[in-house]
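Q: Now give one record:
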Amino acid sequence: LQNANKANEALELAQTYVQTEPEVGVHYERLASIHETQGNVDVAITNYEKAIELTPGDVKIQTYLKLAVHYILNEDIAAAEKILKNALLYTPSEFERRDIELQLIRLYLYQANLVEVLQKTEAEGMPLSYEMSNSEERAQHFRNTGELEKSAAYFKISLVMTNSYHEREKIANELLNIYIEQDRMDLALELYEYEVKYQKKRSNQRLTRASMLYGPSSIEIKFGGDDTRKTLIDAYKNRGKLDELRNIFERKLEKDVDNPAVIEMLAEIYWIVNDYQKAAKTYHALCEVEESNVRSFYLAAIAFEISNQPDMAQKLFKQAEAMLPFYGPGSDGSFLGALATICLKNELYVLANKLCANAITDAENSDEDFVLQTLFSILLKSRIGLAGYYSKNDMSDKAMEQLLQTGIVHEKAWLILGPFDNTAGIGYDMEYIPEDTGEIDLTEKYEGVDEQINWKKLNDDVLDGFIDLGHNINWRVSYAYATVTSPDKREVFFRFSSDDQGKIWLNGKKVFADAAAQQAILDRNTIPVTLKAGKNTILVKVCNEEIAWGFYLRITDADGKPIVKINDAKDN
């Protein structure tokens, strides 16, 4: 019942068992567990105590441990010690006895001097492998009550006791935030450097300490120390003192030129303030200190590229590319996707395309379906970005080549009719033209806002997939019309998004409507539709409120791959 989220029924049943057999300890144990789940801690403690009193040898070992935790949280250390010692008397299992003994060690550490504990564990290199969950709970408790000194003390204990890499980084960030909140920046700086050095010592292979964060169209690779460094940078940045942090680490670098914690901090600061020459030089220095850090090679190369040093950029790109096979199969797809994301953010579209294409090949070989979807989205944005670049530099053929690989119904495919009135949003439901017909008369004239209007080719010189209907032309409506040719009847997907409200008709049948005021984002909506063999007509209506006005439309298979011929507007 409890697992089925029927807490009240579970509680009533447990109480019935207690009333029926009041001398059976397991009933009290079960009742205590339910009360604990519902937050009735004092009642839970009473029932745990009763269960142990009645049948101390039959109670689960976890009951002793739970009761000890409650005593500790209530600062009844003597009771916690007593219950744990009693548990040892009734525990024949060597494995379970070890758990209890470790709990006792924790308890004694709680009563010890914090500084002595830290010094002893560091000096002796004590391999304390068990989880120090209680100290972290207490640290969070004092954090929530505003007792920052006590919270910091318990986070320090947790930091020493944990053997989990990711748990340690989380605890370190909590402690760092407390120091920042207390404005004890000297301790924050000391903690940052200590933690990065510790992480370097733990592993010589940086990839084994990496984690991947997947967004809808991005992959971010995170190494140990990234969050800690960002927390420290943000703290100084929010205080308007980023220059001060830069000066601190520049002085540190003069004294310790091979310290990766110092080098990486400076490189990131230079990048943030757009000093790409110094960022390039500093990331390059990091590459020499950490030769296996392929991400730094890419960041250094990008910084050199941005600062107009293409020879150095190409040299580092080649070095980075040569390193990739050493990162092993199975992780390549995500890792390459993360590198492609870095290049995409910095508008290096050709390299992003190459990395992403290789990432997709690796992910397909590894059956990483969830990674594939993200990689297709990264490749899509990269190709659109490259198309925009080619278009702005008078290379329209190359731009179109990129767009045709995305499935986007591109700018040259559309005829436009508008603007019509959308004052107070009236245009969304107003039929300014026959909307539900597959045969639109493209020679007809209509009354627009200011004059008679007729269908015209879209006037958008930038081929980037966004069908731009105008800018700062507020509270207006326009229609867009295009045709596509399908070799046969088939199920496809319209991937559509508009700024603001939008509707779509396929062959005269409305297949989509969205009344939300929103920004156009690639692939926001996925709409399953059926194309007939031959020519298919598409009518789009977009209502603008303010500022940007337009839409994206792609036609793809289930995986986002283009599958039909998109006709040029001149054919209409």
Summary: Residues 206-391 form a domain with the Serine Threonine Protein Phosphatase 5, Tetratricopeptide repeat fold (CATH 1.25.40.10).
